[in-house]
Design a protein that fits this description.
The chain is an alpha+beta fold. It has 5 helices and 7 strands, in the order H-H-H-E-E-E-E-E-H-E-E-H. The strands form 2 sheets. It has a 4-stranded antiparallel β-sheet, with helices on one face. Strand 3 and strand 4 form a beta hairpin. Helix 1 packs across helix 3. The N and C termini lie far apart (45 Å).
């Protein structure tokens, strides 16, 4: 099994590896510590020091808070903005831009590439802390905001990574 150092993983994340190297890495068994190398690199790139437990988007992470309540698992943007507990839909705490009229749709889908805003709307979820676009979803007007992902963190760490997560403090 091949093992890659942090520099190679960093280049992989940044899309700097030649395609043949990327393809080779994708096709091989993953080294046992790949996830933790990946997390180390992501941790270097964020402005907070709460340990990243799991990335859930390009700039979104589930972290274990170092501040009170210490160990609470929350969703944070790479800028440090906190969206609340990871079991709640972080999108409900984001700034939401809804493209639901022809003019707003034409900004990204001009002319014949457009769609009927009575049948679909585009929702853009933006970080209130740094104004970064974090997620986009297309849905029928009136459809509830989608909760994309609720991971079983303990199971992932214990069964897939072979490590136990520290217990999260009891929430009221």
């Amino acid at each position: 099994m091949a093992s890659y150092d942090h520099e190679v993983i960093r280049d992989l994340i940044d899309g700097q590896l030649p395609w043949q190297s990327t393809k080779s890495m994708m096709s091989q068994y993953k080294d046992d510590d790949r996830f933790f190398k990946y997390i180390d690199i992501l941790q270097e790139r964020v402005v907070f020091n709460d340990p990243i437990l799991l990335p859930i988007g390009e700039h979104l992470y589930i972290v274990a808070k170092k501040s009170e309540p210490q160990g609470e698992r929350v969703v944070k943007c790479s800028c440090g903005y906190e969206f609340g507990h990871y079991t709640h839909n972080w999108k409900l705490h984001a700034v939401i831009n809804v493209r639901n009229d022809e003019e707003a749709v034409a900004e990204i889908y001009p002319g014949r590439h457009s769609y009927d805003p009575e049948w679909m709307e585009i929702r853009e979820f933006i970080c209130p802390g740094c104004a970064r676009l974090l997620e986009v979803e297309a849905a029928a007007p009136g459809y509830p905001i989608v909760f994309d992902f609720l991971p079983y963190l303990e199971t992932f760490y214990r069964d897939w990574l072979g490590k136990e997560l520290p217990a999260e403090p009891r929430r009221d």
